Amino acid sequence: MTDPLSHTHIIALDAADPLRPFRNDFLIPRHKHNDQVYFCGNSLGLQPKGARGYINEVLDKWANEAVEGHFTGSAQWMTYHELVREPLARLVGAQPLEVVAMNTLTANLHLMMVSFYRPTTERPAILMEAGAFPSDRHAMESQIRFHGFDPATDLIEVEPDQQEGTFSMAAIERAIAEHGPRLALVLWPGIQYRTGQAFDLAEIARLGHAQGAVVGVDLAHAVGNLPLRLHDSGVDFAVWCHYKYLNSGPGAVAGCFVHARHAQTDRPRFAGWWGHEKNTRFRMGPEFVPTPGAEGWQLSNPPILGLAPLRASLELFDKAGGMEAVRTKSLKLTGLLEALIRARLADVLQIVTPVDPAQRGAQLSLRVAGGRDRGRELFEYLMSVGVVGDWREPDVIRISPAPLYNRYMDVHRFVEEVETWRGF
Ligand SMILES: *Cc1c(COP(=O)(O)O)cnc(C)c1O
Description:
The protein has helices at residues 7-15, 50-65, 85-92, 105-116, 134-146, 151-154, 169-179, 201-210, 230-233, 304-319, 322-344, 372-384, 408-422; strands at residues 26-27, 30-31, 34-35, 37-38, 47-48, 99-101, 125-129, 155-158, 183-189, 214-218, 237-240, 255-258, 349-351, 364-368, 387-388, 390-392, 396-399. With 424 residues, the chain is α/β, with parallel strands linked by helices. Helix 9 (230-233) links the parallel strand 10 (214-218) and strand 11 (237-240). It is globular, with a radius of gyration of 22 Å. The chain is 36% helix and 14% strand. Helix 4 (105-116) runs parallel beside helix 5 (134-146) and helix 11 (322-344) runs parallel beside helix 13 (408-422). The chain has a 7-stranded mixed beta sheet with strand order 6-12-11-10-9-7-8, with helices on both faces. It has 2 domains: 7-17 and 322-422, Aspartate Aminotransferase, domain 1, CATH 3.90.1150; 55-318, Type I PLP-dependent aspartate aminotransferase-like (Major domain) (Aspartate Aminotransferase, domain 2, 3-Layer(aba) Sandwich), CATH 3.40.640. Pyridoxal-5'-phosphate binds at residues 104-106, 133, 135-136, 189, 193, 218, 220-221, 241. The site of pyridoxal-5'-phosphate has 12 residues, from helix 4 and helix 5. Pathway: Amino-acid degradation; L-kynurenine degradation; L-alanine and anthranilate from L-kynurenine: step 1/1; Cofactor biosynthesis; NAD(+) biosynthesis; quinolinate from L-kynurenine: step 2/3.
């Protein structure tokens, strides 16, 4: 039997990988005369080769048809956002009615909170994780102030209870129970951006709902990374972006989920004409009648050029066999990274991300022995040899092998480069 961590075995893993051909569907940036070893799909996914074709299609349609482009052909702009609705629903485990591609992540978070964060004097509070991505915290805090409440008492930030800065489910459960009667909203990430910890969304929804709170999730790092079952999880709403694991380009149009139980809600919302019922939208009447489901939260006619690359990306996920197939490879790829680090780099790299594969996605967050300066040094060395991860203050390097374009060999290369830097 060959050593599962040997070079020979790793070459064999790539040879036997059913997703291997998909690498060819992406543009891999170059480093000198080679491909970069790109592990930064958690921040900006690589460009699918098909993106340019869809963008050019829009440009050509605009050039040739101008305003008529709204009404002609299957990719007409009037219904363009509907082209991604079903693939997106498949990707996140939702009904088509429950999802929409619109705006950007933080904007969607605010729109969702307008409808789903309805604080009262008895129940004013939002519960979230301490150390959340700053934009999410800014959104929460500003919404609390907007409603005339005080973030000092009404923004409850749960501290991680585990050594690596991760959460036990028990800590989340305790916090929700402790603050239960005061909670208007629980907002939790699908995957924590700094530690890479993945959470059981159905359980968090159950706990929040049991206390009478609304439950929303931020899936920025989970979508395109983990198989999700948003409908079954029962969360009230979800938001995410499409430029990370969804490979749809910088500032891509984002995603939003509203559970079917709210499809016909009379909750307040900030409305715009694109959320109005389709059949009567162009009667241009003064009265707002929302389209049932997530599309009813749309404001404007969407930026078609910003949506175009998402079509190319979603096609690849479908062609690959969906999130189950992607996750199958992801478990092996990140599992190999973990095993190699443990076997060969334990003196340099501490894995912050949970060891339980059920509690993580593609990303491993690595703390470098010797502190921040050593960490920066390693990070910069890796960049200088074309191994691209990213740096998160104060001392973490994030490495995220993306199953659609990373190879097992890439993981091996990372380990070899860290060894070279350390010295054997
Ligand atoms: C990436 C990310 C964002 C970015 O927000 P934008 O509105 O897309 O700029 C916000 N929150 C989380 C948790 C993220 O991971």
